[in-house]
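User: Structure tokens for this complex, please. No commentary.
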Amino acid sequence: MGWLHEWIGFLGGLVLVVCFTAGSLALFDIELTRWMQPELARYHPAPLSDAALDKVGGIVAQMRQNGRNAFITLPTPRDPILRVLHFNGHAFLGTAYSPTDGFPVLTRPTDGGQLFFDLHHSLYRGPFWGNMVTEIAAIGLLIAVGSGLIIHFRSIIPDLLLFRPFASRTRAWMDAHILAGLLFLPFMVMMAYTGAVIHGPRLFPMFGGGHHGRPGLHRPSGDSRATYAPLSPMLHEAEKIFGPATIGLILFENGTVSMTRADSSSFVLTRDHAVFSAQDGTLVDVVRQKDPSRRLGGILRGLHFIRWAPLPLRWLYFLSGIAGSALMSAGLILFLMKHRDRRGSRFLFRLAETLTMGVTTALPIACLGYLWANRLFWSDLPERAHWEIEAFFLVWAVGLVHAAWRSFGPTPLRGWNEHFVLFASFALTVLPLDFLTRTSNGYLSSFDVYKAVDFTAFAFGLLALFIHRRLATS
Amino acid sequence: MITLLILALSLICWGIALGAHALLQPKILRALTLPAPRRGTLRLLRLVMPFCALALCLQLEICCAVLSWFGCFSLAGIGASATLTLASLRQRREHPAGTLAV
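Assistant:
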């Protein structure tokens, strides 16, 4: 069991640290997208008007006639703006519109927080290989958790809170690994299980297809219709069926318009929808998921995506996800500690240390580099969203090269320390970066999504600085 | 706001329960060089406090309540462990090795 836990844990852990870090950030994908569109800071939430919706409906009709598979997302408390989006293979991009008059709001194009969603479920290498690797890693996590439980079975209850930072370094890391593993066991098992089941149809195609919570992914585009019937009466009728303020998506397909329930409207993520004729706006059908197996799938997706939850619960998920990432990082470091004395000079060990640094410290630096690139690239740069992604992967690659340089050299521990210094520098300066690159009235008078991102980055920066000081003095 | 308050109280309840559990473990007391406390009260706290946290969480919607209860358990465990470690470090400063009878 020890061997199984060690090797499955290490190989799976390299992927799972990426999945957990990106997944934790993806919990706030909408908020991060808003942070990365600072032009929206000046807009205050306003109710959706019928005129705005009908006007945007006309824009979508034109886009679909031109072959773009566009759809509409309605304003929500998390994202109080009307958006017309299309899928570019990795993220949903598009234009924001004012919910009061339907005029476009000039925002910089960005993938925003959706990069982390893509990285979480497919390592940005979807839809096949990336997804397959993360699915296998999720199963690996279940095996590692099971074998870890068997190894520590006798001491689970008495050692539940045991942490000895003053013991030997290996003992302290082991305590931290076990402590986080036991305390976050319910979260880890739930996320690994629901994640594996959501992607189950790919691993077991005989059980049907899953939609991954993505609208319009495989739907044909190229609607020949030049205009649609006004959307606002359809929305009002759909709200009579599903309840007020429950509609989140308006999808278009084969001469019909689907008013689809928002993922945030219910714990069970079922995408129930009312179908209307695009020609005259009459109700054609109401689709509700009644099949128990599909409803069970909706429950599992609801548990995993947590789009229905209030903000404090999403923060609980975020902190649990970060703890999961730290747990697996501690496991990777323990693996290196165990083998450093006997195999420290071998090529494979140095490669293992490079990869470990690549996922545990270089990835968070790249995430911050992505935020920095978003604010430093000028807003009308051609293919801006693409260049932001390139910046993210470039910073990650540079971090990996630096990790390799240090790991294959005589002072690998300096590599860790330098990464922490770099991370702290990037994170602690996100707040002034936001202050200098965003126009907003009353910066100090309210607490909004922008400051939440700034202060969260600041807190992680302080933590990195603390770790750097500990590493420097030890 | 109510959700936040419920979660904060639930965290405190779980923290007390887990702290009491830790103080009932001879191995943890030995390892952290903490003095042995009165066991009766600790047993009662360990038994009652998780139910108090559950009762608080059940003021929320049921699925939110269950997830919050488990989430609070995890975070409160980190908090309780950190508190015990700090107490242990203080104890070690005040009573260097060999001077404390456990």
